[in-house]
Specification:
The chain is an alpha/beta fold. The chain has two domains: 1-59; 63-203, DNA polymerase, domain 1, CATH 1.10.150. It has five helices and seven strands; from the N terminus they run αββαββββαααβ. It has helices at 2-58, 86-92, 151-154, 162-175, 192-198; strands at residues 63-70, 76-81, 115-119, 129-131, 139-140, 143-145, 202-203. The strands form two sheets. It has a four-stranded mixed beta sheet with strand order 2-1-3-4, covered by helices on one side. Strands 5-6-7 form a three-stranded mixed beta sheet, with no helix packed on it. The radius of gyration is 39 Å and the shape is rod-shaped. The model is unreliable at 53-58 and 133-139 (pLDDT under 50).
């Protein structure tokens, strides 16, 4: 009788042990599933952050840098909002001087980064302009290649009209290419004031 009771108790205990082991296995599987879900969520969050950083890197700078020269109240380099026009650059620089010839400028022209804006005086030869970096094949970084351009392109320089452009070509053909700014002083009609206007507008190679 006692043996039968003991046998039954062992069966009950064995059954309880099996149930406990089953419960533990179930709980373990649940923890594993949750951990897996958390890992996927973390990966997704990291991916979203990476994409956001990529988008930030592709956003253009909201400002541009402009060099304003000539008949202007405060010639200097200015920082302006992207999308600004020439007239806004002039206003930022304090406006025209009394002898400025604003008719030679396109005040509605759109500005781009690293542009040079030159304002001529009344009666000054040449045409005032806003020159962008790398605008044409004959320009390098917004500058005229003085040893290779023709008469027409020379007249795009501040203070250079048909007469001076012709003199530059003649000197170049007779004496060879210019090597530095001071060489231009040897050209008929070009003095110190003319040379100062050309600073930053020409290259010699």
């Amino acid at each position: 009788m006692i043996k039968n009771i003991q046998g039954e108790m062992w069966k009950v205990m064995l059954g309880i042990a099996v149930i406990i082991v089953g419960i533990l296995l179930y709980l373990h599987n649940q923890d594993t599933d949750e951990a897996t879900t958390i890992d996927w969520s973390s990966s997704a969050e990291s991916l979203d952050e990476g994409e956001a950083l990529d988008e930030i890197e592709t956003i253009e700078e909201p400002f541009i840098m402009i060099d304003i020269k000539g008949a202007i109240q405060q010639p200097n380099v200015y920082q302006l909002p992207r999308g600004s026009r020439v007239y806004e650059a002039i206003k930022e620089a304090g406006g025209f001087t009394e002898d400025a010839d604003e008719r030679q400028l396109n005040l509605a022209q759109l500005l781009v980064d690293e542009m040079v804006v030159y304002v001529p005086t009344v009666g000054e030869e040449g045409v005032g302009e806003a020159v962008a970096v790398g605008q044409t094949d004959t320009k390098e970084e917004g500058k005229i290649k003085i040893n290779t351009v023709d008469e027409t392109e020379l007249q795009q320089l501040p203070g250079i009209g048909p007469t001076k452009a012709e003199a530059i070509i003649a000197y170049r053909e007779e004496n060879g290419p210019f090597k530095e700014m001071n060489d231009l002083l040897n050209v008929s009609g070009i003095g110190i004031k003319s040379l100062e206007k050309l600073e930053g507008f020409v290259v010699f190679h």
